[in-house]
Specification:
The chain is of the alpha+beta class and about 300 residues long. It contains six helices and 20 strands. The mean pLDDT is about 85.
């Protein structure tokens, strides 16, 4: 069976950048010695309040017992797959380091009995979204009705090898958060770009209100005019060590969300876009990221 498009892209990202896999900080013990613990090698990004906290410069190995190690419970058997709760638990390890421990974990990450996050990165009540392979997590067996599929939460969403996972959160959110991403000018998805030095690259920045548009199939989002270009977005290079953004001079999207840019020096880059003006003026915008390999 041929690999799905997003799987091939994930594989490309992980190998093209050629960096060592990151693993959990703490040596693990199985909470249940009778069960084998599965892992998933994924591409992970984390952002909070419009700033990257973790960028996928290398793949990460997620263990299916990570949440349980800290006393959380996701309900997915260790032998099946890690859950998104395992992912966000390890994301806190990566971001916070030694500050995130068995005794302090609830001060930084908390979840209620409904599987809804109540605290992330130490901030109570943030509205936190996650995206897997560019899509909202949903129950594919649920009825696809007036509001799309039934969405899945952190405790019930599995992750698998080669998944691309994005987590974003805004402390002052009222649910008006845009998931944004880059597209080719012809409307096809762009997940990475290979280009020569000084070669012109054209992409489009667009997005949609994630809670409202997420449960729908992408074609229906477009038909119902949920997807919109993001004008006035400034393209920037992400420093993968400090997460600072270095603006690309003159690279600002037009009213159609389109922008053309080039990079002078050979290397591996992560490109993002910030300060755009969405259709819904109160909306928070997630940061997209695009690997660009200049040869």
């Amino acid at each position: 069976m041929a690999e799905a498009l997003d799987e091939r892209i994930s594989r490309y990202i992980m190998h093209a950048f050629g960096r060592s896999t990151q693993t959990a900080r703490i040596p693990r013990k199985k909470p249940d010695a009778l069960q084998a613990v599965t892992t998933a090698r994924i591409v992970l990004s984390v952002q909070y309040d419009g700033q990257f906290k973790f960028i996928p410069y290398a793949p990460v190995d997620i263990r299916a017992d990570s949440a349980e190690w800290y006393g959380y419970d996701d309900g997915i058997p260790y032998g099946k797959a890690p859950s998104m709760l395992d992912v966000i638990t390890q994301a806190h390890e990566f971001v916070l380091g030694d500050n995130f421990t068995e005794t302090s974990c609830r001060d930084y990450l908390d979840i209620d009995d409904e599987g809804i996050l109540q605290r992330m990165l130490g901030v109570p009540g943030p509205f936190t979204c996650f995206v897997i392979n560019g899509q909202y997590a949903y129950d594919s067996e649920s009825e696809y009705g007036r509001i799309g599929y039934r969405g899945l939460g952190y405790t019930e969403t599995p992750v698998y090898d080669l998944d691309v996972v994005e987590i974003f959160s805004f402390p002052q959110s009222v649910g008006m958060d845009y998931y944004t991403y880059f597209m080719n000018p012809d409307g096809s998805w762009v997940r990475y770009v290979e280009a020569a030095s000084h070669e012109q690259i054209t992409i489009r920045h667009e997005g949609f209100l994630f809670v409202i548009g997420g449960p729908y199939q992408h074609e229906d989002r477009i038909e119902q005019r949920m997807v919109a270009p993001i004008p006035q977005s400034q393209l920037a290079i992400v420093n993968t060590s400090t997460f600072e953004l270095v603006d690309i001079e003159g690279a600002i999207t037009n009213e159609d969300g389109l922008v053309t840019f080039s990079l002078d020096e050979p290397g591996d880059y992560y490109i993002t876009a910030h300060n755009g003006v969405p259709r819904h003026k109160r909306a928070n915008l997630s940061l997209p990221w695009l690997p660009v390999i200049v040869r």
